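Okay, any thoughts on this one?
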Amino acid sequence: MRKVDTVRFGEIEVEEEKVVHFEQGIPAFEEETEFLIIPYEEESPYVFLQSLKTPQLAFLMTSPFVFFQDYEIEIDDGTLEKLSIKSQDDIALYVILTIPGGSVKNMTANLMAPIVVNTANMQARQVVLDKGNYTTKHRLFTDKKEGE
């Protein structure tokens, strides 16, 4: 086990087999290649993708299917090969969340660029989808109209 300092979680011990490896980093964070997925809290749909290199870098994520049941993507053959994905059961899919102005009710999900993790070997990559109607800012919560 190795010890890693984080701003949000303090010093944590990391089991090597739980480290998520991004061979090319994440777009705009290419130098960040090792992360840990940490649950927000028990029973929460949210997780943090905590950098093991930069203590203050952690992305809030969720499974897209929690909020967008009809979310569909096609993972290209190149990504499947690069991540050595042999079975659909080995795929974990996440989307990065943004909380504009700190307002949780305005939280958005980046459905255009999901994080694909091969849970069998912990290799991962952020995939930018070029097909479909997804954007980087899909609202998680919609305002209810009067009378609903």
